[in-house]
UniProtKB/TrEMBL annotation:
It comes from Suillus luteus UH-Slu-Lm8-n1. Glyoxylate binds at residues 37, 144, 179, 302, 305. It holds the Pfam family FMN_dh. FMN binds at residues 90-92, 119, 142, 170, 278, 300, 340-344. The keyword Transcription does not apply. The active site is at residue 302. Gene3D superfamilies: Aldolase class I (3.20.20.70). The keyword Oxidoreductase applies. This is FMN hydroxy acid dehydrogenase domain-containing protein. Residues 11-414 form the FMN hydroxy acid dehydrogenase domain. Its cofactor is FMN.
Length: 416
């Protein structure tokens, strides 16, 4: 569109992602642990830095005098048509940054025509998020693999019934990584609050846990510290129940119980639709996914939040896309390759696609938009990323986003 013809100031006060990040910190100054949980990464944050360094190392080499007067950013992924190759990454506990939490993000996604990937650790239920996303919203469900088969099946069935068309299984978070920011602020008890929210919405879990709902104490916007203090100091029985319930749910997922490739068959047997593995970083794992008949992978290192000192995600994608088996499967349409970790601008999307991704996920920037301005803030992030990509793609000499995929040799140059 005619972006420069618009007189409207950005709702986030700026279009610059760094300024938006700083503003989110300012807005969250009375809830700094929540901001730090979002912003932070594993260990010394070196993987998060490596993600950005990888983007900075690969430089765009544009072509001139190509007709890019009209440009197309629509694409088809796993049989679904999308307005742009951009997804909202699964991000848990959005209620810590804004009272509307996931509902605001799911509404923004639908308003912008961008698909929403719902996290298993959401602070709202599957059904409520689906309703907010609406009949025209495009949505996928992300699974943190529960310990119990019954609960896994319950979540999958609920997601299917609520119109989530594809399943993303996150493989890099069988347990939470070493995150000094959260340990410093003792923010982990907040996770019990999250657990409460997710657990409360699952009838199978509630039945198994033997707890009745403790709605009063867990009402939104929930205040985990208040729950914790009430439980520990005041001996509030409801708060103690809530803590136990939340802890029980956390023991159900991200619990340290690792899975192996053979276990994927169980999910395949219980999910009717595409399955995408999130957190792939090695070519040999991408190849295994192909052997298992998995439909897609998301090359991701969880925004550097799990392993400190890991390879930048774009560098991992570069390595994976050197596998002839992966390229062959992608060309045949047997394997969809998506990417995340470090996407901030339109150029980043173009680089990831030239490297071989068919689409990308964005996480932290939309969380900052959510913290500052709720739904409207998320909408700004989505629209500015797509618009930036639209303009930059044309300036690079490409009129169709689908022509970017795998054009590493003509479009990118590594520079140290
Ligand atoms: C995440 N991420 C994530 N991933 C997932 O599969 N399930 C989840 O519940 C969460 N939760 C979550 C919370 C927060 C606060 C953040 C920042 C991230 C990881 C996310 O989907 C994505 O892989 C990375 O965050 C992408 O990197 P960027 O865009 O944040 O650099």
């Amino acid at each position: 569109g005619d972006i420069y013809g618009q007189a409207k100031p950005p709702v986030l006060g700026s279009f610059a992602v760094k300024k938006i990040e700083d503003k989110a910190r300012e807005v969250m100054k009375d809830h700094l642990p929540a901001y730090m949980y979002t912003f932070g990464s594993a260990g010394t944050c070196s993987t998060d830095a490596a993600n950005r360094r990888a983007f900075n190392r690969w430089k765009i080499v544009p072509a001139m005098l190509k007709d890019c007067t009209t440009r197309n950013v629509e694409t088809t992924i796993l049989g679904e048509k999308f307005n742009a190759p951009l997804f909202i990454a699964p991000v848990g506990v959005q209620g810590i940054l804004h009272a509307d939490g996931e509902l605001a993000t799911a509404r923004a996604a639908a308003a912008c025509g961008i698909p929403y990937i719902m996290s298993s650790a959401s602070s709202r239920s599957i059904e409520d998020i689906a309703k907010a996303n609406g009949p025209n919203g495009q949505r996928w469900y992300q699974l943190y693999w529960p310990r119990t088969e019954e609960i896994t099946i319950s979540l999958l069935n609920r997601a299917k019934a609520a119109g989530f068309s594809a399943l993303v299984i996150t493989l890099d978070t069988m347990l939470l990584g070493w995150r000094p920011h959260d340990l410093d602020t003792a923010y982990i008890p907040f996770l019990y609050g999250v657990g409460i929210q997710v657990g409360l919405s699952d009838p199978v879990f509630m039945k198994r846990s033997g707890y009745e709902a403790v709605h009063e104490i867990t009402k939104f916007p929930f205040e985990p510290e208040k729950i914790r203090n009430a439980a520990l100091n005041a001996g509030d029985v409801n708060a103690q129940k809530a803590m136990k319930l939340g802890k029980g749910w956390l023991d159900e997922t991200n619990s340290g119980m690792f899975r192996s490739w053979e276990h994927l068959q169980f999910i395949k047997d219980h999910w009717d639709g595409p399955i995408i593995l999130k957190g792939i970083q090695r070519a040999s794992d991408a190849e295994k996914a192909i052997d298992m008949g998995i439909h897609g992978i998301i090359v991701s290192n969880h925004g550097g939040r799990q392993i400190d000192g890991a390879i930048g995600s774009l560098d991992a994608l570069a390595k994976i896309m050197r596998s002839p088996k992966v390229i062959k499967a992608q060309t045949k349409g047997d394997l969809t390759v998506l990417f995340d970790s470090g996407i901030r601008t339109g150029s980043d999307v173009i680089k990831a696609m030239a490297m071989g991704a068919q689409g990308v996920l964005i996480a932290r920037p939309f969380m900052y938009g959510l913290a500052i301005a709720g739904q409207a803030g998320v909408e700004q992030i989505l629209m500015q990323t797509v618009t930036d990509m639209h303009l930059t793609m044309g300036l690079c000499g490409y009129s169709d986003v689908n022509d970017l995929i795998g054009k590493r040799d003509e479009l990118l140059e590594p520079v140290d």
